[in-house]
User: Which sequence fits this backbone?
């Protein structure tokens, strides 16, 4: 076919018209020789030993000064950051402790409010002569705050009055009064309760 011949003619034409390209990576014979000559022709400056020591000393001093500058700059940058972190942590800790203290004071005020209300209600039942309801309310108050003197005294008082008037719970009343005298000492109101029991 004539197709094959025309393709062959195009290939020959392209080869003939191609320009010569120089390759950067391929070096000719002359280039290697000149590079070799230049390498051999380098001249190095020689320095006497004492001058060389002075140069080394100067280089060391400059390096030490540079290191000192870097340390100072690092200190100037790092110290304020550390101080800021310290005060931030301290502030957060103080906030947390304040919250804990506020919570505790709130809880203690709630406890005080509950015990005050229970004491008032038990006093109401005591005045009306309903010792059973007064004892129930004082028992609740005792469960909330067992170490409170006023609750323990009111409880002992109810038991003593119930013993004196109705003859109920005299052993419990005697045990309570004696326990309070041992714990709180010879208070006048406790001695008055004891004398009431002794009259019975």
Assistant:
């Amino acid at each position: 076919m004539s197709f094959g011949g025309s393709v062959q003619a195009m290939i020959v034409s392209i080869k003939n018209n191609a320009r010569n390209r120089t390759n950067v990576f391929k070096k000719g014979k002359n280039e290697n020789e000149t590079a070799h000559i230049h390498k051999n022709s380098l001249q190095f400056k020689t320095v006497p030993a004492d001058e060389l020591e002075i140069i080394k000393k100067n280089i060391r001093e400059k390096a030490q000064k540079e290191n000192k500058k870097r340390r100072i700059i690092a200190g100037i940058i790092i110290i304020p950051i550390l101080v800021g972190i310290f005060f931030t942590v301290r502030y957060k800790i103080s906030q947390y402790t304040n919250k804990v203290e506020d919570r505790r004071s709130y809880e203690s005020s709630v406890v005080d409010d509950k015990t005050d209300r229970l004491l008032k209600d038990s006093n109401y039942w005591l005045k009306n002569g309903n010792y059973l309801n007064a004892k129930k309310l004082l028992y609740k108050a005792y469960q909330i705050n067992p170490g409170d003197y006023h609750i323990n005294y009111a409880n002992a008082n109810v038991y003593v009055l119930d013993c004196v008037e109705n003859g109920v719970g005299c052993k419990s009343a005697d045990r309570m009064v004696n326990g309070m005298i041992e714990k709180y000492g010879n208070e006048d109101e406790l001695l008055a309760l004891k004398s009431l029991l002794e009259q019975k």
Q: What stands out?
A: The mean pLDDT is 81.
